[in-house]
Amino acid sequence: MIFCILRFMLYLVGSAFVFYSIYFV
């Protein structure tokens, strides 16, 4: 359960980082 939540958080952070990078570049 915790691993699933951690994986979801990591996916969310990664998606946000990619979106942030594309938006600024």
Automatic annotation (TrEMBL):
Transmembrane spans: 5-23
Keywords: Membrane, Transmembrane, Transmembrane helix
The protein's name: Uncharacterized protein
